[in-house]
Write a structure and sequence with these properties.
Its cofactor is Zn(2+). The chain is an alpha+beta fold. It has a 5-stranded mixed sheet with strand order 2-1-3-4-5. 28% of the residues lie in helices and 25% in strands. Bound molecules: zinc ion.
Length: 130
């Protein structure tokens, strides 16, 4: 699947973001290895700490549908600028796609794809616990 298609899907789901506090809408399109795409938007809460990012919404939807292997995730924000995933989302993505990549979008600069490992060097893995 082309990055452009994933970005288009992320823009579409961004419209469903629930962001009455920050007004910063984010959309994410997560491409699974089986070709399915899971979409997510940010869901804010009056108790700010309960806010869920678009990336984690997409991952949670996929895992709850029995899908755990992903190739890449496209992320767009209503600012039109690159919106790199926050630290928590980087770690959550690393759990399921350590070899995956992150595609960002900017209205002026276009798309930017980077390996997740570059965004989260030495990320923590479950096997490190053993
Ligand atoms: Zn996040």
């Amino acid at each position: 699947m082309e990055n452009k298609e994933l970005i288009a899907m992320a823009k579409e789901v961004m419209q469903r973001a629930y962001a009455p506090y920050s007004h910063f809408r984010v959309g994410a399109a997560l491409l699974a290895k089986d070709g399915r795409v899971f979409l997510g938007c940010n869901v804010e809460n009056a108790s700010f700490g309960a806010t869920i990012c678009a990336e984690r919404t997409a991952v949670t939807k996929a895992v709850s549908e029995g899908v755990r292997e992903f190739e890449k995730i496209a992320i767009v924000a209503s600012s039109g600028e690159y919106a790199a995933p926050c630290g928590i989302c980087r770690q959550v993505l690393y759990e399921f796609m350590p070899e995956g990549s992150v595609v960002l979008w900017s209205k002026d600069e276009g798309e930017l794809e980077r390996p997740l490992r570059e965004l989260l060097p030495m990320g923590f893995r479950g096997e490190d616990i053993k």
